[in-house]
Amino acid sequence: MTSIYLVRHGQASFGKKDYDNLSEIGEKQSFLLGEYFKKLKLNFDKIYVGTLKRQIQTSEQILKNYENKINIERTQLLNEYDVKSVLTGFVNGRELTYDELHNKKTHFSLLRNSVMAWSNNEITYSINETWDQFEKRAGTFLNLFKETRSEEHTSELQSPDHLVCRLLLEK
């Protein structure tokens, strides 16, 4: 029987110039998860990971706990949607304010509202990926995964939480 472990990337560097890196906490979270997997004696045959730096860094931290080589497949199909594009689309193309970008409460309130509008196809301003395109991308990965998996393997999917939720809905 195939076992699948879904992992969200560790904490990213919110408010930093390059958000697409793990914070120190994110590195520790990822390493500790690898320790936990090792304690459970989980041996992965393959790890699927997106191509964003924080996704790759998460898998690298997890793998520090393993001596054996584990096959890693990087795919853009597991990348996070373009958050900035969705946020900008939600506010009809205006530049985001400092608070909207750097104040956690303001940012995450705006993010929640914009993702809700995005998932209901209510954003009319041009964005890089519509919700329907996002769903199709998630479905494409799921089909690819189903076609290539072996019944006797254990796999880890390391992707953003919203893609994990989409993949679970497709199950």
Structural notes for this entry:
It is a single chain. By secondary structure, the protein is of the alpha/beta class. It has 7 helices and 4 strands, in the order E-H-E-H-E-H-H-H-H-E-H. Strands 1-4-2-3 form a 4-stranded parallel β-sheet, with helices on one face. Helix 1 crosses helix 2 (53-63), helix 3 (83-90) packs across helix 5 and helix 6 (131-148) packs across helix 7 (161-170). The radius of gyration is 17 Å and the shape is globular. It starts with a strand and ends with a helix. Mean pLDDT is 86; it is low at 165-171.
Q: What is the rounded Rg?
A: 17 Å
Compute the separation of the termini in Å. 16 Å
Instruction: Please give the count of helices.
Output: 7
Oligomer: single chain
Shape: globular
Uncertain regions spanning at least 5 consecutive residues:
165-171
Number of strands: 4
The side-by-side strand order for the widest beta sheet comes to 1-4-2-3
Structural class: alpha/beta
Write the layout of secondary structure elements.
Elements (H helix, E strand, L loop, with lengths): L2 E5 L16 H16 L6 E4 L3 H11 L7 E4 L8 H8 L7 H5 L1 H16 L11 H18 L5 E5 L2 H10 L1
What's the short version?
The protein is of the alpha/beta class. The chain is built from 7 helices and 4 strands.
